[in-house]
Amino acid sequence: MEQLKEKIRSEGIVLSDKVLKVDAFLNHQIDPQLMQQIGREFARRYQGQGITKIVTIEASGIAPAVMAGLELGVPVIFARKHQSLTLTDHLLTASVYSFTKQVESTIAISTNHLSPSDRVLIIDDFLANGKAAKGLITIIEQAGASIVGLGIVIEKSFQAGRQELEALGLRVESLARVQALQDGQVHFVD
Amino acid sequence: MEQLKEKIRSEGIVLSDKVLKVDAFLNHQIDPQLMQQIGREFARRYQGQGITKIVTIEASGIAPAVMAGLELGVPVIFARKHQSLTLTDHLLTASVYSFTKQVESTIAISTNHLSPSDRVLIIDDFLANGKAAKGLITIIEQAGASIVGLGIVIEKSFQAGRQELEALGLRVESLARVQALQDGQVHFVD
What range does the domain containing B151 cover? Predict the structure, then answer.
């Protein structure tokens, strides 16, 4: 997605050879128009696949997921990382290690919102080693729902996430694929 | 906003005389179409006010804030509750106590994204005692930006939040105002 790559080139900051900061439009400040375009692109790639639910993870996955849900006409569920008094239902959980936050956390989705008849599109802001995605997959499988595929805003193609997800037979659609972060520059695949 | 009230009546769950659970469409599962309508209503109420930024707080404020940002054509910033490796900028912070999570947490916004020329609309999912809103106000004032008003999805009018914000001279627009939670029923103002 060329508009996204342009935004990454102009506003992304390479913090190290592994860390790309996109706080200007995705992870802290959000560009709603860009999110709408991202949602449309995910919907275009997954149209006709009978998707009934989108699942993402708080907080940075929510904006692109909601825009995709708007285009596909389906509800969005965001997995919670932090317990709330109102989340009193029976929970499906998985343990996820976050590299950028350097903590292990438990993510949870209420059983009320996923059923075996659901066909799920997983959306997230980043795919690196695939830990967050695998946590979501564990939860969706516990619910007995089907996974149609994943929609990723920015993929770090130099890490193993895509390879591991494809090895599970899953479709991975990433809107920007980063081949390398070198000398302060972002290099994309192709 | 009648469509929102209908949704609260049909899918909200009264957990106690203070706690209303709206996990089916706002706080855990999100209804993107409803969020779009909510965003349009906030935009309608604040049009012509010269708003340049929307500020909200992760995670449940993000969906309505992004939809309002899309309608108003302005960026959205979400205050973070949890430290991230990529949030390395100078931070503006405030301390906020969450009743539903029963924890004190520090919320933060990078100085990169707010300036004295900004005219800010604060959006959040709930207004109860106003603790989260006041945390955001503290941060926005530290940045020297102006606050045009607040846009709240669900106001618990039986708690002191609105009163305290109005006492600060702030405009508060709430799309659903809950007068009481009694006998498992939601009673709205007017």
Answer: 2-188
